Amino acid sequence: MWKTIIFLGIAYLIVKYLFLDKKENNNKLNNNIKKSKTNKIQHYKEKGLDDKDIDIFRDTMKEARDNIKYWNSQLPTHEKLEIIEEQTAGLESSKKIFQAIVEEPAEMTKENDFLYKDLPNMVTLVKKYGELTEVRPETQEVKMELAERLYYINKLSERITKNYQAMLIDDVDEIKHALKDKEVEEKVEEYE
Question: What Pfam family is a match for this entry (predicted)?
Fold first, then answer.
């Protein structure tokens, strides 16, 4: 009898742990996701976006995120792409530009070339490079095409990194101007 009670108690704990706790955890996770989405939407509204702008923003950023994820997924499968990334940091810069746009949606208009040209072109180049690496036999023409793709991937990656660096410099310049304006105001007040 005691063995049966102990067995049923252990079985109950296992079932509760495996199924009920997971359901509660999933509900908590879903609530956190809903809160996170609500917080992001509220953040975008505070930054001056209306509902239509938010929809466009989210669609654009989803596409950019997918492009960055694809580019990132191809690095481990192609050694030469990893080497380019080590030298240029284009992918890392893309991630940072993406994050900056998410934090400050107004940056999206400044980063049109990145979002609508550079990033999609990089994905196209990386896809074509991947397809060409699988072509057999590897003829001289294929080798030349691979070299050309690598050249353009490298140049575009450098461009993205320069774009990110320019973004950082612009941020510093804005701070400098704000400080200078404040200093001028303080000096004017001294003479009043």
Answer: Halogen_Hydrol
